[in-house]
Amino acid sequence: MGWYILIVTLGCFYALSYMIESSHLEDIKKREQYYRDKVKLTNLKVLPEDVVARDVLLCRGSIVLGANYYRRFVAKLKQIIGGHLKILEGIIDRAYREATLRMIGDAYAKGATMIINVRYETSCVGRTDRKGNNSSSMMEVLAYGTAIVV
Hints:
With 150 residues, the protein is an alpha+beta fold. Helices cover 45% and strands 25% of the residues. It has a single domain (2-149), classed as Translation Initiation Factor IF3, CATH 3.30.110.70.
């Protein structure tokens, strides 16, 4: 009976997390489409020669995302065996895309049409165990760059 409850609970967590993640991904796709032609991104450190800037501003976007209990449970099982933790890659991808969109939104609100020198920083967020290891499955992604108003 105990295994049955565990399996049903994991199934419910999976279904709920799948619905939430799908909704978030749809929202990300809509906003990516909206900003596609409005703000250009590059990791170049200098402006292209044909661009004259009226204003230069810092823009940034950040997000903290965590793995749900289902993903953490499956990832812990996978750690025992070893290998590729593909189940967590979706969260990392969503975090980078969301941070990028928030950075673009910040730049767009400031009137920018281009962001140069785009960079990313990541960090683990949460508690640590007695040995100093991070025991949480949360990460922060910070996207930042130089917004150019032309």
